[in-house]
Amino acid sequence: MKLIFLTTALVSYMLPACLGFPYEQEVLHQTKHERIKKVMADYKDVANAIIDLAVHGGAQNRSYNRLARFVDTIGNRMSGTENLKNAINYMYKALQEDKLQNVSLEPVKVPHWVRGEESAMMLKPRNKSIAILGLGSSIGTPPEGISAEVIVVSSFTELHNRAKEAKGKIVVYNQPFVSYGETVQYRAYGASEAAKVGAVASLIRSITPFSVYSPHTGWQDYQKDVPKIPTACISIEDAEMFARMASRGETIVVLLKMGAINNPDADSFNTVAEIVGSKYPEQVVIVSGHLDSWDVGQGAMDDGGGAFISWEALSLIKDLGLHPKRTLRLVLWTGEEQGGVGAGQYYQSHKKDISNIDLVMETDIGTFMPTGLQFSGNTEAQAIMTEIMQLLKPINITNLYGNAEGTDISYWMEAGVPGASLIDEIDKYFWFHHSQGDTMTVQNPVWMNLCAAVWTVVSYVVADLEEMLPRER
Ligand SMILES: *[C@@H]1O[C@H](CO)[C@@H](O)[C@H](O)[C@H]1NC(C)=O
Ligand SMILES: *[C@@H]1O[C@H](CO)[C@@H](O)[C@H](O)[C@H]1NC(C)=O
Ligand SMILES: *[C@@H]1O[C@H](CO)[C@@H](O)[C@H](O)[C@H]1NC(C)=O
Ligand SMILES: *[C@@H]1O[C@H](CO)[C@@H](O)[C@H](O)[C@H]1NC(C)=O
Ligand SMILES: [Zn+2]
Questions:
Q1: Ranges for the Peptidase M28 domain (predicted)?
Q2: Label partner for 100 (CA 20 to 30 A): which of 130, 220, 240, 440?
């Protein structure tokens, strides 16, 4: 997951225009509800078969084992790297070997930022090396580095109030972690805000509630017409140390060296595979995760887990010999971490088919213990999804929440297509996010089995309903 949680609420309370008296509405509503319940009763056996195969049967731990082999073989997968090319080739082959249909690579262009050598050293009040991770799109420093006094602030407001003190200095942001969505503003915009008051570099407390001396990277955005200054994240531990030193009136000097380079956009691909619909092949349910990652850790959690339970959904449906009426399309996005870049180009080249895109699904906030589904769609569609979730009673994961999220599916949701995302126990997600800690060690096969079961039941049933999910636009 990249920048900001998107809260694309497409909930609508419009009633069909044909309805007359409130009583009549009530009766119609009742019958509709009864009808949905009846349709879902027919899916009970197939839902149980999916759950059995994924959780207890022959496919137990498969998505976990596939992911482990993949991340141990390929490693992390940043846009523009050989690793990402290898990952795409690996998946292209694996999806064909899995006998999925229409396996294809759709070319797109992605940003190509290279971290290079980087280091930071505190020179005053004493020598101490500072762990850093440069932020994506940051410029580098001159080879000899930037050596400057530090000013520590805890918010943009404090920076603006002390603007005069910041000139020529390195701004250290020691902002508290409130939530990812709120606090990530410092990572995204910290450099430009510091540059506006004349700072020469910025060091930002990592966007995480917890740390074992771990810097966390991520994309950042320079504002137009503001000088570009080098920027990196530091650990919570060092940010707090700088803050304590500053509060005691000690002078802090840091030497920052970053070899970061922004190269021209690179060639990449969204990786696609299908189970072609048996009755309405032109109508599509998209299940997805992103294949690219940051250049630290293994990208097992962000978003290896999401990508591999999405693959698993198609594998399970194929293994059970199911033939949904609509096409199930797996898309493994590229260039997500740079701002949903691969998905944006996919949307541009496929939006002509928007009336045939039934539902877009993405998992990109972990595959920990699943707790339910987030869904964006109108009230009628919500009623259908609520009943689909009841099919997951055998594993007690029946909650339907609002506001699906996912950078890659946001393009479709903003245009009115219903969207769904898996929600899990994410309290530890940001401990590992975009850090060296994002490895296979945080993944759990039992949780991945449950995630795959939820993902598969939902995508299969929606793809197999006689009608597409209702939508407003
Ligand atoms: C799946 O993983 C769980 C947890 O590690 C383990 O108990 C179980 O035996 C595994 N199942 C298979 C089929 O390997
Ligand atoms: C997808 O596969 C189906 C069945 O194999 C085939 O009929 C169809 O032409 C394929 N579509 C594309 C775009 O390749
Ligand atoms: C501190 O580090 C600087 C730069 O690496 C070095 O030149 C200097 O000798 C060090 N000072 C001490 C006291 O170790
Ligand atoms: C089912 O899940 C809910 C949380 O959604 C939990 O409160 C309840 O205890 C669970 N029930 C069982 C039987 O595990
Ligand atoms: Zn992600």
A1: 270-444
A2: 440
